[in-house]
Protein backbone atom coordinates (compact mmCIF):
# COMPACT_ATOMS: atom_id res chain seq x y z
CA UNK A 1 0.00 0.00 0.00
CA UNK A 2 1.09 3.49 -0.67
CA UNK A 3 2.36 5.30 2.40
CA UNK A 4 0.00 8.13 3.21
CA UNK A 5 2.07 10.23 5.55
CA UNK A 6 1.51 13.91 4.88
CA UNK A 7 4.12 16.32 6.08
CA UNK A 8 1.97 18.98 7.60
CA UNK A 9 3.31 22.48 7.67
CA UNK A 10 2.55 22.79 11.33
CA UNK A 11 3.80 25.93 12.98
CA UNK A 12 4.98 24.79 16.37
CA UNK A 13 4.51 27.63 18.77
CA UNK A 14 5.16 27.81 22.47
CA UNK A 15 1.95 27.01 24.27
CA UNK A 16 3.15 28.90 27.31
CA UNK A 17 1.93 28.44 30.82
CA UNK A 18 -1.83 28.10 31.12
CA UNK A 19 -1.92 29.16 34.73
CA UNK A 20 -5.68 29.56 34.74
CA UNK A 21 -6.79 27.55 31.73
CA UNK A 22 -9.66 25.98 33.60
CA UNK A 23 -11.14 29.45 33.35
CA UNK A 24 -9.98 29.73 29.74
CA UNK A 25 -7.51 32.50 30.57
CA UNK A 26 -4.43 32.57 28.35
CA UNK A 27 -1.13 34.26 28.87
CA UNK A 28 0.11 36.19 25.87
CA UNK A 29 2.81 33.65 25.00
CA UNK A 30 1.39 32.22 21.78
CA UNK A 31 2.19 34.81 19.11
CA UNK A 32 -0.16 33.37 16.54
CA UNK A 33 -2.99 32.73 18.96
CA UNK A 34 -4.01 36.28 19.74
CA UNK A 35 -2.76 39.82 19.47
CA UNK A 36 -4.09 41.00 22.82
CA UNK A 37 -5.13 39.03 25.89
CA UNK A 38 -7.83 41.34 27.22
CA UNK A 39 -10.39 43.55 25.49
CA UNK A 40 -10.23 45.10 22.01
CA UNK A 41 -9.50 41.82 20.27
CA UNK A 42 -8.12 42.57 16.80
CA UNK A 43 -7.73 39.05 15.46
CA UNK A 44 -5.00 36.43 15.32
CA UNK A 45 -1.84 37.54 13.56
CA UNK A 46 -1.44 34.40 11.43
CA UNK A 47 -4.62 32.46 10.62
CA UNK A 48 -2.87 29.68 8.70
CA UNK A 49 -0.39 29.17 11.53
CA UNK A 50 -3.13 29.19 14.16
CA UNK A 51 -5.14 26.61 12.21
CA UNK A 52 -2.08 24.39 11.84
CA UNK A 53 -1.54 24.73 15.56
CA UNK A 54 -5.15 23.62 16.13
CA UNK A 55 -4.51 20.45 14.15
CA UNK A 56 -1.37 20.00 16.20
CA UNK A 57 -3.46 20.31 19.37
CA UNK A 58 -5.79 17.58 18.12
CA UNK A 59 -2.77 15.41 17.42
CA UNK A 60 -1.41 15.95 20.93
CA UNK A 61 -4.76 15.20 22.58
CA UNK A 62 -5.18 11.98 20.59
CA UNK A 63 -1.60 10.82 21.04
CA UNK A 64 -1.52 10.22 24.79
CA UNK A 65 -2.74 6.98 26.34
CA UNK A 66 -3.93 9.05 29.32
CA UNK A 67 -6.54 11.85 29.46
CA UNK A 68 -9.16 11.38 26.70
CA UNK A 69 -8.07 7.82 25.97
CA UNK A 70 -7.91 6.91 29.63
CA UNK A 71 -11.34 8.39 30.41
CA UNK A 72 -13.04 6.61 27.53
CA UNK A 73 -11.26 3.26 27.59
CA UNK A 74 -9.96 2.83 31.14
CA UNK A 75 -13.47 3.26 32.54
CA UNK A 76 -15.00 0.63 30.24
CA UNK A 77 -15.26 -3.15 30.30
CA UNK A 78 -12.70 -3.63 27.54
CA UNK A 79 -9.51 -2.24 29.07
CA UNK A 80 -7.80 -2.26 32.43
CA UNK A 81 -4.37 -1.24 33.60
CA UNK A 82 -3.42 -3.54 36.50
CA UNK A 83 -0.70 -2.58 38.94
CA UNK A 84 2.27 -4.93 38.54
CA UNK A 85 4.37 -4.72 41.69
CA UNK A 86 5.01 -0.98 41.73
CA UNK A 87 4.67 -0.61 37.95
CA UNK A 88 1.55 1.23 36.78
CA UNK A 89 0.59 2.13 40.33
CA UNK A 90 0.62 5.84 39.47
CA UNK A 91 -1.07 6.81 42.74
CA UNK A 92 -4.14 4.82 41.76
CA UNK A 93 -5.19 6.90 38.73
CA UNK A 94 -5.81 3.79 36.62
CA UNK A 95 -7.45 1.72 39.35
CA UNK A 96 -9.95 4.44 40.24
CA UNK A 97 -10.97 4.70 36.60
CA UNK A 98 -11.62 0.97 36.37
CA UNK A 99 -13.46 0.85 39.68
CA UNK A 100 -15.52 4.00 38.94
CA UNK A 101 -14.30 5.73 42.08
CA UNK A 102 -12.62 8.80 40.52
CA UNK A 103 -13.18 12.26 41.96
CA UNK A 104 -12.89 15.90 40.88
CA UNK A 105 -9.13 15.93 41.48
CA UNK A 106 -8.27 13.11 39.07
CA UNK A 107 -5.40 14.15 36.79
CA UNK A 108 -6.99 12.90 33.58
CA UNK A 109 -10.27 14.66 34.39
CA UNK A 110 -8.41 17.94 34.85
CA UNK A 111 -6.01 17.57 31.92
CA UNK A 112 -8.73 16.71 29.42
CA UNK A 113 -10.86 19.64 30.62
CA UNK A 114 -7.96 22.07 30.31
CA UNK A 115 -6.65 20.94 26.95
CA UNK A 116 -9.97 20.70 25.15
CA UNK A 117 -11.36 23.95 26.55
CA UNK A 118 -8.15 25.75 25.60
CA UNK A 119 -8.48 24.42 22.06
CA UNK A 120 -12.08 25.66 21.89
CA UNK A 121 -10.98 29.18 22.83
CA UNK A 122 -8.09 29.25 20.35
CA UNK A 123 -10.41 28.09 17.57
CA UNK A 124 -12.99 30.71 18.51
CA UNK A 125 -10.31 33.33 17.91
CA UNK A 126 -9.70 32.00 14.40
CA UNK A 127 -13.43 32.02 13.65
CA UNK A 128 -13.93 35.59 14.93
CA UNK A 129 -14.51 38.16 12.12
CA UNK A 130 -11.55 40.20 13.37
CA UNK A 131 -9.17 37.44 12.25
CA UNK A 132 -10.33 37.74 8.63
CA UNK A 133 -9.97 34.01 7.90
CA UNK A 134 -11.14 32.74 4.52
CA UNK A 135 -14.25 30.57 4.24
CA UNK A 136 -12.43 27.24 4.23
CA UNK A 137 -10.28 28.22 7.19
CA UNK A 138 -13.41 29.20 9.12
CA UNK A 139 -15.06 25.92 8.15
CA UNK A 140 -12.10 23.85 9.31
CA UNK A 141 -11.88 25.84 12.55
CA UNK A 142 -15.60 25.31 13.18
CA UNK A 143 -15.21 21.58 12.61
CA UNK A 144 -12.28 21.41 15.00
CA UNK A 145 -14.12 23.51 17.58
CA UNK A 146 -17.11 21.20 17.24
CA UNK A 147 -14.84 18.18 17.76
CA UNK A 148 -13.36 19.57 20.98
CA UNK A 149 -16.65 20.90 22.34
CA UNK A 150 -18.31 17.59 21.53
CA UNK A 151 -15.97 15.80 23.90
CA UNK A 152 -16.38 18.34 26.71
CA UNK A 153 -20.16 18.04 26.33
CA UNK A 154 -19.98 14.25 26.24
CA UNK A 155 -17.62 13.83 29.18
CA UNK A 156 -18.69 16.66 31.52
CA UNK A 157 -22.22 17.68 30.47
CA UNK A 158 -21.51 21.44 30.54
CA UNK A 159 -19.17 23.67 28.59
CA UNK A 160 -17.62 27.01 29.64
CA UNK A 161 -17.33 29.49 26.80
CA UNK A 162 -15.35 32.72 26.68
CA UNK A 163 -15.87 35.29 23.93
CA UNK A 164 -12.73 36.59 22.25
CA UNK A 165 -13.18 40.13 23.60
CA UNK A 166 -13.67 39.07 27.22
CA UNK A 167 -10.74 39.60 29.54
CA UNK A 168 -9.75 37.47 32.54
CA UNK A 169 -11.99 39.58 34.78
CA UNK A 170 -15.05 38.07 33.06
CA UNK A 171 -16.17 34.61 34.16
CA UNK A 172 -16.96 32.51 31.07
CA UNK A 173 -20.62 31.71 30.57
CA UNK A 174 -21.51 28.04 30.88
CA UNK A 175 -23.55 26.14 28.32
CA UNK A 176 -25.81 23.36 29.50
CA UNK A 177 -25.49 20.04 27.74
CA UNK A 178 -28.44 20.79 25.48
CA UNK A 179 -27.07 24.25 24.65
CA UNK A 180 -23.66 22.80 23.84
CA UNK A 181 -25.33 20.13 21.71
CA UNK A 182 -27.05 22.80 19.62
CA UNK A 183 -23.83 24.85 19.41
CA UNK A 184 -21.87 21.88 18.07
CA UNK A 185 -24.65 21.07 15.59
CA UNK A 186 -24.64 24.66 14.37
CA UNK A 187 -20.86 24.74 13.94
CA UNK A 188 -20.94 21.55 11.86
CA UNK A 189 -23.88 22.58 9.71
CA UNK A 190 -22.37 26.01 9.06
CA UNK A 191 -19.00 24.46 8.24
CA UNK A 192 -20.34 21.76 5.92
CA UNK A 193 -20.69 23.78 2.66
CA UNK A 194 -17.15 25.16 2.84
CA UNK A 195 -15.31 22.02 3.95
CA UNK A 196 -13.40 20.18 1.22
CA UNK A 197 -14.88 17.02 -0.30
CA UNK A 198 -12.29 14.37 0.53
CA UNK A 199 -12.73 10.68 -0.21
CA UNK A 200 -10.56 7.74 0.85
CA UNK A 201 -6.86 8.49 0.61
CA UNK A 202 -4.11 10.52 2.18
CA UNK A 203 -6.15 13.73 2.32
CA UNK A 204 -8.11 12.40 5.28
CA UNK A 205 -5.68 14.05 7.67
CA UNK A 206 -7.77 17.19 7.15
CA UNK A 207 -11.29 18.20 8.17
CA UNK A 208 -13.76 17.33 5.42
CA UNK A 209 -17.44 17.03 4.61
CA UNK A 210 -17.26 13.31 5.37
CA UNK A 211 -15.73 13.97 8.81
CA UNK A 212 -18.49 16.50 9.56
CA UNK A 213 -21.15 13.98 8.49
CA UNK A 214 -19.56 11.42 10.82
CA UNK A 215 -19.63 13.74 13.83
CA UNK A 216 -23.22 14.76 13.05
CA UNK A 217 -24.16 11.07 12.96
CA UNK A 218 -22.58 10.65 16.41
CA UNK A 219 -24.59 13.61 17.72
CA UNK A 220 -27.90 12.28 16.45
CA UNK A 221 -27.19 8.72 17.61
CA UNK A 222 -26.55 9.91 21.17
CA UNK A 223 -29.03 12.81 21.15
CA UNK A 224 -31.46 11.12 23.54
CA UNK A 225 -28.59 10.65 26.00
CA UNK A 226 -27.38 14.23 25.72
CA UNK A 227 -30.87 15.74 25.98
CA UNK A 228 -32.03 13.22 28.62
CA UNK A 229 -35.12 12.12 26.72
CA UNK A 230 -36.73 8.76 27.30
CA UNK A 231 -35.53 7.07 24.12
CA UNK A 232 -34.19 7.70 20.65
CA UNK A 233 -36.62 9.34 18.25
CA UNK A 234 -37.13 7.79 14.82
CA UNK A 235 -36.42 11.12 13.08
CA UNK A 236 -33.04 11.39 14.80
CA UNK A 237 -32.17 7.83 13.81
CA UNK A 238 -33.11 8.61 10.23
CA UNK A 239 -30.75 11.60 10.43
CA UNK A 240 -27.96 9.21 11.47
CA UNK A 241 -28.71 7.09 8.42
CA UNK A 242 -28.72 10.11 6.11
CA UNK A 243 -25.33 11.31 7.35
CA UNK A 244 -23.79 7.85 7.00
CA UNK A 245 -25.22 7.55 3.50
CA UNK A 246 -23.49 10.85 2.69
CA UNK A 247 -20.20 9.29 3.83
CA UNK A 248 -20.88 6.28 1.61
CA UNK A 249 -21.57 8.70 -1.23
CA UNK A 250 -18.09 10.15 -0.71
CA UNK A 251 -16.59 6.74 -1.54
CA UNK A 252 -15.87 5.25 1.88
CA UNK A 253 -16.55 1.55 2.31
CA UNK A 254 -15.63 -1.47 4.42
CA UNK A 255 -12.23 -2.95 3.73
CA UNK A 256 -10.97 -6.49 3.92
CA UNK A 257 -7.82 -6.94 5.96
CA UNK A 258 -8.74 -5.64 9.40
CA UNK A 259 -5.27 -4.84 10.77
CA UNK A 260 -4.19 -3.19 7.52
CA UNK A 261 -6.59 -0.36 8.35
CA UNK A 262 -4.25 0.63 11.18
CA UNK A 263 -1.15 0.79 9.01
CA UNK A 264 0.13 4.16 7.75
CA UNK A 265 -1.24 3.40 4.28
CA UNK A 266 -4.21 4.36 2.16
CA UNK A 267 -7.42 2.48 2.85
CA UNK A 268 -11.14 2.83 2.20
CA UNK A 269 -12.20 3.17 5.85
CA UNK A 270 -10.24 6.06 7.39
CA UNK A 271 -12.42 9.19 7.38
CA UNK A 272 -10.08 11.21 9.59
CA UNK A 273 -6.66 10.45 11.00
CA UNK A 274 -3.95 12.43 12.73
CA UNK A 275 -0.18 12.22 12.68
CA UNK A 276 -0.12 11.29 16.34
CA UNK A 277 2.43 8.64 17.21
CA UNK A 278 0.92 5.18 17.52
CA UNK A 279 3.67 4.30 20.00
CA UNK A 280 1.51 4.76 23.08
CA UNK A 281 -1.06 2.31 21.66
CA UNK A 282 1.63 -0.32 21.12
CA UNK A 283 4.22 -0.05 23.84
CA UNK A 284 1.80 0.53 26.72
CA UNK A 285 0.57 -3.05 26.30
CA UNK A 286 3.64 -5.03 25.14
CA UNK A 287 6.11 -6.63 27.54
CA UNK A 288 9.66 -5.40 28.07
CA UNK A 289 10.95 -8.44 26.16
CA UNK A 290 8.89 -7.64 23.09
CA UNK A 291 11.23 -5.22 21.42
CA UNK A 292 12.05 -4.45 17.79
CA UNK A 293 15.13 -3.23 15.97
CA UNK A 294 13.96 0.37 16.30
CA UNK A 295 12.88 -0.07 19.94
CA UNK A 296 15.10 -2.68 21.52
CA UNK A 297 13.94 -1.68 25.01
CA UNK A 298 10.55 -3.24 24.33
CA UNK A 299 7.19 -2.32 25.79
CA UNK A 300 5.99 -0.73 29.00
CA UNK A 301 4.00 -3.78 30.12
CA UNK A 302 0.73 -2.23 31.21
CA UNK A 303 -2.58 -2.31 29.35
CA UNK A 304 -4.62 -5.51 29.31
CA UNK A 305 -8.18 -6.58 28.62
CA UNK A 306 -10.76 -8.44 30.66
CA UNK A 307 -11.32 -12.15 30.11
CA UNK A 308 -15.02 -11.57 29.53
CA UNK A 309 -14.34 -9.03 26.80
CA UNK A 310 -11.90 -11.38 25.08
CA UNK A 311 -14.57 -14.07 25.19
CA UNK A 312 -16.87 -11.93 22.99
CA UNK A 313 -14.78 -12.94 19.98
CA UNK A 314 -15.43 -16.04 17.91
CA UNK A 315 -12.94 -18.86 18.38
CA UNK A 316 -11.48 -21.21 21.00
CA UNK A 317 -11.10 -19.01 24.08
CA UNK A 318 -8.02 -20.92 25.25
CA UNK A 319 -5.83 -20.50 22.18
CA UNK A 320 -5.12 -17.70 19.71
CA UNK A 321 -2.43 -19.03 17.37
CA UNK A 322 -2.86 -18.88 13.58
CA UNK A 323 -5.51 -21.19 12.19
CA UNK A 324 -7.23 -21.88 15.51
CA UNK A 325 -10.68 -20.92 14.27
CA UNK A 326 -10.79 -17.36 15.57
CA UNK A 327 -12.36 -14.44 13.75
CA UNK A 328 -9.93 -12.03 12.10
CA UNK A 329 -10.49 -9.19 14.59
CA UNK A 330 -9.23 -11.26 17.51
CA UNK A 331 -5.88 -11.51 15.78
CA UNK A 332 -3.28 -14.15 16.53
CA UNK A 333 -0.01 -14.95 18.30
CA UNK A 334 2.53 -16.25 15.73
CA UNK A 335 4.67 -19.21 16.70
CA UNK A 336 7.71 -17.78 14.92
CA UNK A 337 8.65 -14.90 12.64
CA UNK A 338 10.87 -14.26 9.66
CA UNK A 339 11.16 -10.47 9.59
CA UNK A 340 11.57 -7.63 12.04
CA UNK A 341 8.58 -7.19 14.29
CA UNK A 342 6.24 -9.71 12.68
CA UNK A 343 6.79 -12.27 15.42
CA UNK A 344 4.80 -10.00 17.71
CA UNK A 345 1.14 -10.90 17.39
CA UNK A 346 -1.82 -8.77 16.42
CA UNK A 347 -5.08 -8.21 18.24
CA UNK A 348 -5.26 -10.10 21.53
CA UNK A 349 -2.04 -11.63 22.79
CA UNK A 350 -2.54 -14.61 25.10
CA UNK A 351 -0.47 -17.58 26.29
CA UNK A 352 3.19 -18.11 25.35
CA UNK A 353 4.89 -15.31 23.42
CA UNK A 354 7.71 -16.02 21.00
CA UNK A 355 10.90 -14.46 19.64
CA UNK A 356 11.64 -14.01 15.94
CA UNK A 357 13.55 -17.32 15.81
CA UNK A 358 10.63 -19.21 17.32
CA UNK A 359 12.14 -19.55 20.79
CA UNK A 360 9.97 -18.93 23.83
CA UNK A 361 10.31 -15.48 25.38
CA UNK A 362 10.76 -15.11 29.14
CA UNK A 363 10.04 -12.32 31.56
CA UNK A 364 12.78 -10.48 33.45
CA UNK A 365 12.88 -13.17 36.15
CA UNK A 366 13.29 -15.95 33.59
CA UNK A 367 9.72 -17.27 33.69
CA UNK A 368 8.07 -18.25 30.39
CA UNK A 369 6.36 -15.14 29.00
CA UNK A 370 2.84 -16.53 29.15
CA UNK A 371 0.10 -13.89 29.13
CA UNK A 372 -2.67 -15.24 31.32
CA UNK A 373 -6.37 -14.78 30.77
CA UNK A 374 -7.09 -14.21 34.44
CA UNK A 375 -5.65 -11.63 36.79
CA UNK A 376 -5.56 -11.91 40.59
CA UNK A 377 -6.92 -8.36 40.93
CA UNK A 378 -6.08 -4.77 40.15
CA UNK A 379 -3.17 -5.14 42.57
CA UNK A 380 -0.67 -7.95 43.09
CA UNK A 381 -0.03 -8.81 39.45
CA UNK A 382 3.19 -10.11 37.96
CA UNK A 383 4.69 -9.22 34.58
CA UNK A 384 2.70 -11.91 32.78
CA UNK A 385 -0.85 -11.41 34.02
CA UNK A 386 -3.45 -10.22 31.53
CA UNK A 387 -4.24 -10.54 27.83
CA UNK A 388 -2.58 -7.74 25.84
CA UNK A 389 -4.34 -5.69 23.13
CA UNK A 390 -2.49 -4.59 19.99
CA UNK A 391 -4.30 -2.94 17.06
CA UNK A 392 -1.41 -0.82 15.78
CA UNK A 393 1.68 -2.93 15.12
CA UNK A 394 5.38 -2.16 15.65
CA UNK A 395 6.32 -3.73 12.31
CA UNK A 396 5.11 -0.42 10.84
CA UNK A 397 7.59 1.52 12.98
CA UNK A 398 8.23 1.95 16.68
CA UNK A 399 6.52 5.34 16.86
CA UNK A 400 4.68 5.60 13.55
CA UNK A 401 2.79 8.89 13.22
CA UNK A 402 -0.64 7.62 12.26
CA UNK A 403 -3.71 7.22 14.48
CA UNK A 404 -7.25 6.80 13.11
CA UNK A 405 -9.78 9.21 14.63
CA UNK A 406 -12.95 8.52 12.58
CA UNK A 407 -13.46 5.20 10.78
CA UNK A 408 -16.10 4.06 8.31
CA UNK A 409 -16.86 0.76 10.04
CA UNK A 410 -18.02 2.81 13.03
CA UNK A 411 -20.27 4.90 10.78
CA UNK A 412 -21.54 1.70 9.15
CA UNK A 413 -22.47 0.23 12.54
CA UNK A 414 -24.03 3.54 13.57
CA UNK A 415 -26.33 3.23 10.58
CA UNK A 416 -27.22 -0.37 11.44
CA UNK A 417 -27.96 0.64 15.03
CA UNK A 418 -30.06 3.59 13.88
CA UNK A 419 -32.13 1.23 11.72
CA UNK A 420 -32.55 -1.09 14.71
CA UNK A 421 -33.71 1.90 16.78
CA UNK A 422 -36.42 2.85 14.29
CA UNK A 423 -34.70 4.93 11.61
CA UNK A 424 -36.02 4.79 8.07
CA UNK A 425 -33.89 2.94 5.52
CA UNK A 426 -34.23 0.36 2.78
CA UNK A 427 -31.32 -1.53 4.37
CA UNK A 428 -31.69 -4.16 7.07
CA UNK A 429 -29.68 -3.95 10.29
CA UNK A 430 -29.04 -7.69 10.63
CA UNK A 431 -27.95 -7.95 6.99
CA UNK A 432 -25.57 -5.03 7.47
CA UNK A 433 -24.00 -6.52 10.59
CA UNK A 434 -23.61 -9.90 8.91
CA UNK A 435 -22.00 -8.25 5.91
CA UNK A 436 -19.39 -6.77 8.22
CA UNK A 437 -18.93 -10.07 10.03
CA UNK A 438 -18.39 -11.89 6.73
CA UNK A 439 -15.66 -9.41 5.76
CA UNK A 440 -14.07 -9.94 9.19
CA UNK A 441 -14.24 -13.74 8.75
CA UNK A 442 -16.83 -14.32 11.48
CA UNK A 443 -19.98 -16.44 11.27
CA UNK A 444 -23.27 -14.63 10.59
CA UNK A 445 -25.73 -13.91 13.40
CA UNK A 446 -29.23 -15.38 13.23
CA UNK A 447 -30.82 -12.43 15.03
CA UNK A 448 -29.84 -9.00 16.29
CA UNK A 449 -30.55 -7.78 19.81
CA UNK A 450 -29.32 -4.63 21.51
CA UNK A 451 -26.70 -6.73 23.31
CA UNK A 452 -25.59 -8.20 19.98
CA UNK A 453 -25.14 -4.71 18.58
CA UNK A 454 -23.11 -3.56 21.59
CA UNK A 455 -20.96 -6.69 21.37
CA UNK A 456 -20.38 -6.18 17.65
CA UNK A 457 -19.30 -2.59 18.20
CA UNK A 458 -16.89 -3.86 20.85
CA UNK A 459 -15.39 -6.46 18.54
CA UNK A 460 -14.94 -3.97 15.71
CA UNK A 461 -13.97 -0.79 17.57
CA UNK A 462 -12.00 -1.89 20.64
CA UNK A 463 -9.52 0.73 21.88
CA UNK A 464 -10.86 3.37 19.45
CA UNK A 465 -12.34 5.68 22.15
CA UNK A 466 -15.99 4.68 21.81
CA UNK A 467 -16.57 1.92 24.39
CA UNK A 468 -17.57 4.17 27.33
CA UNK A 469 -20.02 6.09 25.16
CA UNK A 470 -21.44 2.87 23.70
CA UNK A 471 -21.94 1.36 27.13
CA UNK A 472 -23.76 4.48 28.31
CA UNK A 473 -26.05 4.42 25.27
CA UNK A 474 -26.82 0.72 25.73
CA UNK A 475 -27.28 1.04 29.50
CA UNK A 476 -24.37 -1.13 30.67
CA UNK A 477 -21.89 1.47 31.90
CA UNK A 478 -23.21 1.34 35.47
CA UNK A 479 -23.34 -2.47 35.54
CA UNK A 480 -20.67 -4.62 37.19
CA UNK A 481 -17.74 -6.43 35.60
CA UNK A 482 -14.49 -7.95 36.77
CA UNK A 483 -12.92 -5.87 39.58
CA UNK A 484 -15.66 -3.23 39.24
CA UNK A 485 -18.65 -3.32 41.62
CA UNK A 486 -19.72 0.32 41.58
CA UNK A 487 -23.11 0.86 39.88
CA UNK A 488 -23.56 4.60 40.53
CA UNK A 489 -25.47 6.05 37.58
CA UNK A 490 -24.02 9.55 37.99
CA UNK A 491 -20.65 8.19 36.79
CA UNK A 492 -21.92 8.59 33.22
CA UNK A 493 -20.59 12.14 33.59
CA UNK A 494 -17.21 13.08 34.96
CA UNK A 495 -16.91 15.74 37.66
CA UNK A 496 -16.03 19.32 36.89
CA UNK A 497 -12.42 19.66 38.11
CA UNK A 498 -12.17 21.27 41.53
CA UNK A 499 -9.86 24.04 40.36
CA UNK A 500 -12.28 24.91 37.55
CA UNK A 501 -15.10 25.39 40.06
CA UNK A 502 -12.88 27.69 42.07
CA UNK A 503 -11.87 29.82 39.09
CA UNK A 504 -15.31 30.09 37.46
CA UNK A 505 -18.32 30.42 39.81
CA UNK A 506 -20.68 30.01 36.84
CA UNK A 507 -19.81 26.30 36.84
CA UNK A 508 -21.69 23.90 39.11
CA UNK A 509 -20.51 20.47 40.15
CA UNK A 510 -22.21 17.53 38.49
CA UNK A 511 -24.56 15.51 40.73
CA UNK A 512 -22.94 12.84 42.87
CA UNK A 513 -19.51 14.46 43.22
UniProtKB/TrEMBL annotation:
Residues 277-513 form the RagB/SusD domain. Keywords: Cell outer membrane, Membrane, Signal. InterPro entries: SusD-like_2 (IPR041662), SusD_RagB_dom (IPR012944), TPR-like_helical_dom_sf (IPR011990). Its main location: membrane. Gene3D superfamilies: 1.25.40.390. It is found in: Cell outer membrane. It comes from the Bacteria. This is RagB/SusD family nutrient uptake outer membrane protein.
Amino acid sequence: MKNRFIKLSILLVALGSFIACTDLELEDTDSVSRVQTTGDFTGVSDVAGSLSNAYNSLRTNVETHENLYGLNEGTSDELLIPTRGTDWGDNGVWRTLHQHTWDANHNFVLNTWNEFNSAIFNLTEIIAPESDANVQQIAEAKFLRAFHMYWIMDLYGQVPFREVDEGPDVNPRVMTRSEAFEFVMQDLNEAMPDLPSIGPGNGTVQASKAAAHYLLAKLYLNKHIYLATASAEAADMTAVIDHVDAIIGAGFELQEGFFEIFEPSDDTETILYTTSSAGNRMWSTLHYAQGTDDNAAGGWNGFSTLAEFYDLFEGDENVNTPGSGQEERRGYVPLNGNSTGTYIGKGFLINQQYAADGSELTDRAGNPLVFTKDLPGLLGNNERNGIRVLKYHPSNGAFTGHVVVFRFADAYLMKAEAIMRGGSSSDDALTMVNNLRTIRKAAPLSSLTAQDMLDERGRELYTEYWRRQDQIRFGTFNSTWEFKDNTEEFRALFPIPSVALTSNPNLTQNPGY
